[in-house]
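Re: that chain you flagged

S.,

Sorry for the slow reply, it's been a week of failed gels. I finally had a moment to sit down with the sequence you sent. For the record, here it is as I used it:
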Amino acid sequence: RNDFENYLCTLLLPSALRGPAFAIRAFNVEIALIQDQTSETAISGMRYNFWNDTLKKIYNNNPPQAPVPLELHRVLKTFKLSKHYFQRLLDARWRKWQAADFPDLESLEKYSEETVSPIYYLLLEARGIKDVNIDHIASHLGKAQGITNLLRSAPHHAQKRVCVIPQDLLMKHGVPTESVFRGEMSKELSDVVFEVASRSHQHLEKVKTIIHSHEFM
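Prediction finished late last night. Pasting the structure tokens below so you have them in one place:
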């Protein structure tokens, strides 16, 4: 329900890979929902701490008796998945919660990589693939998907008075943050969105270039 598109994509994976893929995606959904479940910093901090402790317990063979931790622990008995990738996903969400806005496109891009690319790295580990060029693809693909996800989520966040559009681009095009919160469309805002979307497109083009220049695809 909360990640239907990636659920459908996971169904297209080889059957042996679906188990770990669903567990990885479920973990990501759980930590992504923290920001939507409360606006209280203290409560959010408690939930992030819960998942931080949960991750440690999972890797120490003592998972909490809850569906996602138990499933992830079960998967780890068969697949060697690096803890630090899960930790990156969690830490990136927490840093974003504390920082609120993105000051520039580079910070949005970095957040996109940190919240999407580790999922691809984990899927590659589950598949037993170790290739620096494929890792490079996963990095760019994560940035492209992450940037797109943030653009798509902009209206949802704006309703909660959270702006995920880079502040420097809003200033560059003369778009007040308040107008974003009010959902006011303008040519200037369209130009901002186009500039952000163009960065996502650049990463997709880079992926195509890497694929075409190597024989593994």
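What I noticed first: The first helix runs from residue 4 to 11.

Talk soon,
D.
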